């Protein structure tokens, strides 16, 4: 009962482990009433005391699992304890003891497995918590870096906006001064009109002329107002054009920087390729020297073969002469040894020739690949220089247009936005040779 009470009942991981413990109690609970009758009615031998305790333990387990049924069964047993005879045997008691020991072992195994699973789940939870902390720290660092970048961008945009606002304020001041001058002229004209009205009686024809002049001046004022509105609209369009041209200039500069970086990388790669080509040429020269040495060796071997052939012919003649002599076997052995030596030298000569041919063909193929790569790199560098010149000319044209827009704000002539294409002749581009 202590082992059963030590198991947790609220966890989901151990709920499936307690189910097998309920069903095996059935055969033990069937003998609960008999054990209780033995405890209340009779005292048997001392050897049956352990079995009686085991049966009472099984009865107690049945009470834990089914408390209502256990109390009812206990009341029924009290009434029938005197009437029921003793019907247990020692074999059944021993079987029950063995089953009880098996159940206790199973309980201990279940408890140990539950503790192991609990430890593993705790370790997994701690590992997951540590990973979450690391990910949170990484996200914090990323957010801080992004905030710094956005703050720098906002500061730059604020500076640009402050400059633009200052320029617009200056232009607004100029327009206000012009408007004040026009208002002053209008006031002067109104005073003149009043004086002309006073002199209307005496100067009727002059009054008509002055009225005509006033109409002209009013028309001029309306024209000036219209021109002021047009100048304001032109100013707005020019500011938008300036902003778009500035954005294009920034893009062009970024592209030029990227092209410069690419050209630098290509120049570095060209230098490395040139160094590798020099190394390969040195290796090729070394291999050529080795091949020349091998050729000399082959010539020497051929000379030795010729000498050996002459010696072999001499030995054959001696062999023919010595067949009649008493020692023909020794001469035949020497001739066979010389023939084997000649065959071996021929095989070595053939192997050296094959090796030399393979090495020369490999170096020729490698040299051809290096030449092809060199031509590709030079062609790509020419294309990059052509695009770089095109971007440089386009940048100069944009700067000229910005200067014209900044200097010719008072003029009314339209500015032609001619951006030339990539019309640089291919022959004018000079690529760096390796």
Automatic annotation (TrEMBL):
The GO biological-process annotations, alphabetized, read as:
regulation of dendrite morphogenesis; regulation of synaptic plasticity
Chief subcellular location:
cytoplasm
Keyword annotations for this protein?
A: Coiled coil, Cytoplasm
One GO cellular component this record assigns the protein to is:
cytoplasm
A Pfam family this protein belongs to? Fez1
Q: Which residues form a coiled coil?
A: 93-362
Q: Which domain of life is it from?
A: Eukaryota
Query: What name is this protein filed under?
Result: Leucine zipper putative tumor suppressor 1
Instruction: Identify the species of origin.
Output: Cariama cristata
Show the taxonomic lineage.
Eukaryota, Metazoa, Chordata, Craniata, Vertebrata
